[in-house]
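look at this record:
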Amino acid sequence: MGDGYGLIMATLKLLKWIEEKLPDKPRLGFLLLVIGAVIVGLTPMLLSQDLGPDVGDVRAVWFFLGGTCGVLGGYILFRRAVWMWQDKRAPRITTLRLK
């Protein structure tokens, strides 16, 4: 099995680790969303000048970093919202009418 399989398995293990270790604080979720939006928004403006051949690589890294922050922030808020929705909702099967 090639390098692609190892990369996919490592990514899945990393996602599992993030799922277990990431705190469920809404403030952290909003902060990560804002940081990600600021990084993605400022990257084209800050790196708009042609500074050399490597500026495209730097721009790609910053877009990836901002996107990652945004996705993690959105995931925290989504997970929190799902848990709150499930806590408020009544259980589906409470009684059975067998008459």
